[in-house]
Structures are given as C-alpha cells and as structure tokens.
TrEMBL record:
Entry comment, domain topic: 2 residues (Tyr-68 and Arg-71) present in a large hydrophobic pocket are probably involved in substrate specificity. They are important for desuccinylation activity, but dispensable for deacetylation activity.
NCBIfam families linked: PRK00481.1-3
The organism of origin for this protein: Kocuria oceani
InterPro entries according to UniProt: DHS-like_NAD/FAD-binding_dom, NAD-dep_sirtuin_deacylases, Sirtuin, Sirtuin_cat_small_dom_sf, Sirtuin_class_III, Ssirtuin_cat_dom
Signal peptide residue numbers: none
Official protein name in the record: NAD-dependent protein deacylase
Record-listed substrate binding positions: 68, 71
Stored Pfam families: SIR2 (PF02146)
Compartments where located: Cytoplasm
PANTHER family: NAD-DEPENDENT PROTEIN DEACYLASE, NAD-DEPENDENT PROTEIN DEACYLASE SIRTUIN-5, MITOCHONDRIAL-RELATED
Keywords: Cytoplasm, Metal-binding, NAD, Transferase, Zinc
Domain Deacetylase sirtuin-type: 1-251
Cofactor binding note: Binds 1 zinc ion per subunit.
Amino acid sequence: MDDLDPELLALARSARTVTVLTGAGMSAESGVPTFRDAGTGLWARWSPEELATPEAWEADPELVWSWYLWRARQLRRLRPNAGHRALARWAGRARVQVVTQNVDDLHERAGSEVLAHLHGSLFAFRCSACGAPFPGALVPGLSPVDPEEPTRERPPMCPVCGGAVRPSVVWFGELLPEGALERGADAVAEADLVLVVGTSGLVQPAASLPLIAAGRGIPVVEVNPEDTALTPHADWAVRARSAEALPRLLP
Ligand code: APR
C-alpha cells in the first residue's frame, strides 16, 4: 500500500465529526464473502433472484430461511478485522457515525455504534405476515455451530399470528428500514469528513449518500482496492484493503 497523502492524514486527525459508509468489502477480510467480487462473491454461488427477493420467499421460504440462517451461523465463527477495530478506536477521538449496507454485526462486535443498518441485519427477525418482531434468541440453531452447507429448515412460526418468521434483511425491491436512509443522509450532511469503505456503489439509495457530501464540499475518501461508481465523487481514493488502510489512516 502506498504512503498516505500527508494532507489526508492531517484531515483524518483533525476531523471532529466523521461519517463512514461501509459495504461488503469492509467485512471481506473477516472472511465474509462480498456480493459482486468475481469468483468469491456470494452471488457467484447463489443468484440474488433465488434468495434475496420477496418472490423467492413466497416460492420457497424454507430455502431462503435456511440460507440466511446459514449465513448468520457462519458469522458467529468470524471476527471483526483490523479495519473494524480501527473505526471503533477512532470513536474515542472524534464523533464517528457508522452507516452500513452490511447485515453482519462485525462493526458492533468491534465496539462501534452503528447509526443505521441500511439493508437490515442477519440477526433481527420478524413475522413475514404481521411484522411482529421475533427475538433472535428463539431462532433455533443460531448458536455457534459448525456451518456446513445450508440444510433445509422450516422458519419459526410467529407466536402472534402463526405466520412464518423471516430475517429482517432488506430484499431487492423492498423499502429500507423506517428512518435509516434519513439518519444516514443527516449524518453525511453534518460530517467534516466522509469515508466510503468497501462498497461498489451500485445499489441505490445507499450509493446516493456520498453524493450528498460531495454536493456540500465535504471531503470524501474512498477506501477500496478498486475503482468504483463512487470514485469520481471522491476527493481521495485510497487503493488498498480496508483492514490495511484504516489502521494507517485513522488516529
Ligand atoms: N477492503 C475494501 N474494499 C474491498 C475489499 C477489502 N478488503 N475487498 C473487496 N472490496 C470492495 C470491492 O472492490 C467492491 O467494490 O468491496 C466492494 C464490494 O462491493 P459489493 O460486493 O457490490 O458489495 P456492496 O457494495 O456492499 O453491495 C451493496 O448490494 O447485494 C446488495 O444488499 C446487498 O448491501 C449489499 C449491496
């Protein structure tokens, strides 16, 4: 990784309010597959249409439930990486607002507070019929088990209406959680510095958030080994892996 621009380092050290928008690349070095990296991307094995849509749930709730349960179990074995930990430490020096597209809990397990999970969480559940929240502690098999290939399992039944319980993850075509995008937009608008880490910037409306900063002249730093759709809107492009770059960028 090249040396970081001294002006960027000074900016990172002086920023008082920072908003960090993260995507799947933030968790890649913890072993969580990204969505679109060729070959390793999660969708390389399953197509989004098969699993992350309301239609897929209607067609085969057991398949969709089993896949999400398997992903949640996988995560129980994984750990936050040095990038997650660097962001958590930074919160001791500045007001750091994390807005993530990730449905994992690695930011929280590293010690960060997450202002918004724009695409929901693997560890939150609700009834697919009446919407009643369903406690994760009651989800069978969400204990640390050796994640093998997904087995077919029936989703739990809602104690309120008997409907099938689903993961509270935002599926393609669904609305984001109430207020999440607004909190993200406010956090970007009030920041001295915006970091965009590990996202291809291809999925709206999350990808519109860095443009709010760019439109207000708030410095935007992209941390990603590759160019993305957001690169043209960034003031700095740190072409490196987040677990390597963030500990060197952040105080
Ligand atoms: N450090 C930083 N960035 C990385 C790393 C890494 N170690 N490894 C990969 N990346 C970058 C890739 O270059 C890519 O730009 O992370 C990005 C991952 O992009 P996607 O796989 O498209 O993931 P993301 O942008 O989070 O997808 C957004 O799409 O499928 C939906 O809901 C899903 O939240 C997801 C959304």
